[in-house]
Amino acid sequence: MNLASSVGLSTKPSLPSLHSLLNSYIESRNRKQALLLFRQLLEYNVKPNDLTFSLLLKACTSSSSSSSSSALNSVNVKRDANQIHTHLLKSGVDRFMYVSTALLDLYMKLGCVRNAHRLFDDMPDRDVVSWNALICGFSRNGCDFEALKLFVQMCKEGFFPHQTTLVSLVPSCDLEAAEHLFEEIVEKSVVSWNTMIGAYGQNGFFDEAMLAFKRMQEENVPANLVTMVSLLSANADPESTHCHATKTGLVNDASVITSLICQYATRRNTESGKLLYKSLPQKNLVSLTALMSSYTEKGDLFQVMSCFAHLQQLEMKLDAVAMVCILHGMKDPMGFCLGLAFHAYGLKSGLSADSLVANGLISLYSRFDKIETAFSLLSEIHEKTLISWNSLISGCVQAGRPSDALEVFFQMKMSGHSPDAITISSLLSGCCQLGYLQFGERLHNYILRNNHEVEDFVGTALIDMYIKCGRIEHAERVFKSIEEPCLATWNSMISGYSLYGLEHEALACFSEMQNQGIKPDKITFLGVLAACTHGGLVQEGRKHFQIMREQFNMVPDLQHYACMVGLFGRAGLFEEALMFIRNMEMEPDFAVWATLLSACCIHQEVKLGEYVARKLFFLDSNNGGFFVLMSNLYAVKGMWDEVARVREMMRESGGDGCSGISVIEMTSLEDMNVNLSSSKSSLNANAWQPLLSLY
DNA sequence: ATAGGGTTAG
């Protein structure tokens, strides 16, 4: 390839002319051209100086590849940085501190922490700027402890920390230390305030973020667009922030608009999001992605697609993030077809090579039980991240193939990844499906031994696993070890007690939860009502149903109604049950009537039972469950002719009444094969072999 | 120097 023509040079260039060319590449963010020019300069035996390197490094740092969000992570840039490093040493320009510092900064931005550190160690002299680049780099790459250690070392060596260094250290500290650092800053600039607001927000201290913002206003430091963005990501109220941004003129900024769209989306307000997007003078992909994501959350596929049409009208192209967002919205069969079309778009545009998009595709295919496709997608990812593995593991579990999930988990371990909270909670939920207590216990041990935090998700999954595997006392122990259980954790425990017929424990748990200031949701009430039903606590059930509607303004779902019908029916209060069904705000479904029929069986109510069975037949004649119930009801009353008639109807309708499968825990591979080789489960004994000796 | 859209989980 002719390098000269590719960068438009035909004669030996002078250094100043090369520098001005490099400057133009920096402006157009063209890393590749800048490097080509540099290579050509070497071919022409022009000696680069410190400015040449400085410009070249700037071109690398500011480079933005066409679409991928992970531009700076690419292997290519890392390779280029290493080459520049070599030439830097060869030419002796590394004696210029500012050039070495620029390279150090690039290494840090690429995540090459070790290279950066070595470069720093090799530097003959350091100044505050190079120290800052090093400390800031460690902090940005999540090496918080290192960053703090270096900060101390820097102070020991007599350097006075600059405000920048202090700011960059804030994310490395826990919050209290950050506050101390912050108070150390005498002249607090907008940037310092923004950093503190951001730190509060990222740690979930939303009230503190708001307080810091108020203090900042009191001290007459004017907010800028970063303040708005940080506030919004600290869950600030979108309306009042919107108001503030409008008054200060900051609402004209695209990133503020994007953040507002997102924050309105958390309140399910897509209408304001749409208006904000429309107000943008320059449409851009990031804001549009935020808007699409708000529609995705709401399940409004039509609006997602019209956003996509809008994007095409503007002749914009999707990038990886936008693609992932769209794929995430494909949740029904129609969506799956569209998802396939977007897979094709990804293949044509090259986007599907991005591991982000590949992960999104894996979840898409698993959502529709296409596990084989998901498997092959994973195998094609070159740099498999933990998220890629997790996507497939959770995909298998969701598709009802927990043993495949375990197989993938084993492969993941082999490839050198350690499970995180998401891996573990997915696997635990897979254990529930298999009733595989032993493996669940191993995961629990793994969590304890590796000091994994038993946080919301893992804690809830553990409790669920123990409950579904018959060990309520273990579930209780886990529950009691959690200091501040979240709503889902409380819900698990309440419905667990209810499942075991421990209605008083369930109700005690419910009131304890409210004492702790946790607001119940619909799932909580499902557990509470089920507890009342199981325990025959009619009055308690009535009371809680009323509390749910009147005190918490919730509209009951069909499941809540079914629960109540069961409560009345089991107590023999058939008139109340029927009145209740008549007064429902929605059409009773199969489950509601089936609950009543089952109560008829208990109380041998043949006449009502026949009436209900007819209802059920018209609602869903393919669901044969009510045949069995009816047949049992007649049998209890000794009405054998009727039993025979029902059995005959059952045969005619094709229902065999025995499609259930029981799974019991297997303690050896032989057991497993015996128990499951003939069932629907895709359990693969070979996959389990290594697991048994895993820990 | 501080920041904007996204994926995996109960």
Automatic annotation (TrEMBL):
Record-level GO BP terms: RNA modification
Domain of life: Eukaryota
InterPro entries xrefs: E_motif (IPR046848), PPR_At4g14850-like_plant (IPR046960), PPR_rpt (IPR002885), TPR-like_helical_dom_sf (IPR011990)
Presence of keyword Repeat: yes
Keywords carried by this UniProt record: Repeat
PPR repeat copies, ranges: 127-161, 189-223, 385-419, 486-520
Recorded GO MF terms: RNA binding
Protein name: Pentacotripeptide-repeat region of PRORP domain-containing protein
Organism: Prunus persica (Peach)
